Amino acid sequence: MAKDFKRSYKFAVKTSLYLTLFMGFISALLLIFAGVFSWVLLFAFVISCFVFSFLIIQYRVEFFIYKKIKKIYQNVSILSAVPLKPGQVSTDMNTLSQEVEKFVEGKKLEIETLKIRDSYRKEFMGNISHELKTPLFTVQGYILTLLDGAMKDKKVRKQYLNRAAKGVERLIYIVKDMDMISKLETGELNLKFEKFDIVEVVQGVFDLLEMKAAKKNITLVFDTEYEPVWVKADKERIQQVLTNLIVNSIKYGKKDGTTEVTIEELSQKKVIIRVSDNGEGIEKKHLPRLFERFYRVDKSGSRKEGGSGLGLSIVKHLIEAHEEKIFIESSFGIGSEFSFTLEKAEKPRGITDSPEGA
Ligand SMILES: Nc1ncnc2c1ncn2[C@@H]1O[C@H](COP(=O)(O)OP(=O)(O)OP(=O)(O)O)[C@@H](O)[C@H]1O
Ligand SMILES: [Mg+2]
């Protein structure tokens, strides 16, 4: 808005012309009646009348519009008040209304964004309370039953206390996840970059999740045998990314299925790590929202898996904190592939065959 408007003199010229015509006509009559009519006199009067009225009108109009428009701006634009100088305002109403329209469009967009954000916030609050409510009520239920007399039975007491402890564990898990997301969003979580062998980290995650996978007879494998692949990243966080992705591939994988990890060179500076499964797959319509906090494809069905829909949101935040990219490809009923990039690193000096990291 702070640009110079096109100056227009049309209004002042036209109005001065009308005035001059009228005044010229009246003064001609007066001169005739007074008996002193002279063309020179009339011409001088007409010219001075035109010049004088033009200057007054032009100045007054500019001043008037400047005052009015400034007031409108002050009223409308609370967020981006742009100080107007008299020189920036003109009598060219077209330019002015175009500028105001542009301004209104901008405000409309801003309001839309705020509305979307507000509904997202409401949905988010609802999700949090829902996720916390379920385990809280479970814990409360067991404790109240115990207090009501169930604690007298030694066997029931142990069983209920164990279940209550599981509920508390679940609560801690959700709160920890939320804490990590908010730290990532506010930029509080500092990454500790180091050089490490990504193959070794993947193997470590495979080992940790072996039991979980065995329950569904899912095999965790590399697509081929790998030499160490050195990358520069926060080892602990990348381990978490891999854990979340591989746990998902088990949770949403088919019985007797396979989760395969591939490590490829993407460019001179990057490697890409792919985690693919032959599980249930994800319908296309869910893909754009999959990385949102609390977003789950099957809100009821897979609830028995105990997920709260935070896993992928954390994955995305962690990868983005590394300034890397994450991709997803999925065919419903066939399987899914999550892949992310990492920065390559030189093999650290002094490391020979089987490295322990940097
Ligand atoms: N490999 C996969 N195959 C099929 N669906 C998947 C896969 N990974 C994720 N999804 C879908 O994406 C949704 C979101 O995943 P996310 O990891 O964020 O949450 P979650 O696994 O439900 O819970 P959490 O990870 O917080 O315990 C899941 O509910 C699931 O429906
Ligand atoms: Mg998950």
Structural summary, described in words:
The chain is of the alpha+beta class. It folds into 3 domains: 10-91, no CATH class; 115-185, Signal transduction histidine kinase, dimerisation/phosphotransfer (DHp) domain (Helix Hairpins), CATH 1.10.287; 193-344, Histidine kinase-like ATPase, C-terminal domain (Heat Shock Protein 90), CATH 3.30.565.10. The chain is built from 7 helices and 7 strands, in the order ααααβαββαββαββ. It is elongated and about 130 Å long. The relative contact order is 0.08. It binds adenosine-5'-triphosphate and magnesium ion. The site of magnesium ion (MG) has 5 residues, from helix 6.
Structural class: alpha+beta
Distance between the termini: 55 Å
Q: Give the low-pLDDT segments.
A: 1-5
The overall number of domains is 3
Quote the beta fraction: 5-15%
Q: Could you say what the CATH architecture of the largest domain is?
A: 2-Layer Sandwich
Mean pLDDT: 87
Report the count of strand segments: 7
Let me know the largest β-sheet: 7 strands, mixed
Helix content: 40-55%
CATH superfamily of the largest domain: Histidine kinase-like ATPase, C-terminal domain
The CATH class assignment of the largest domain is Alpha Beta
Q: What string gives the helices and strands in order? A: HHHHEHEEHEEHEE
Shape: elongated
What Rg, in angstroms, do the CA atoms define? 37 Å
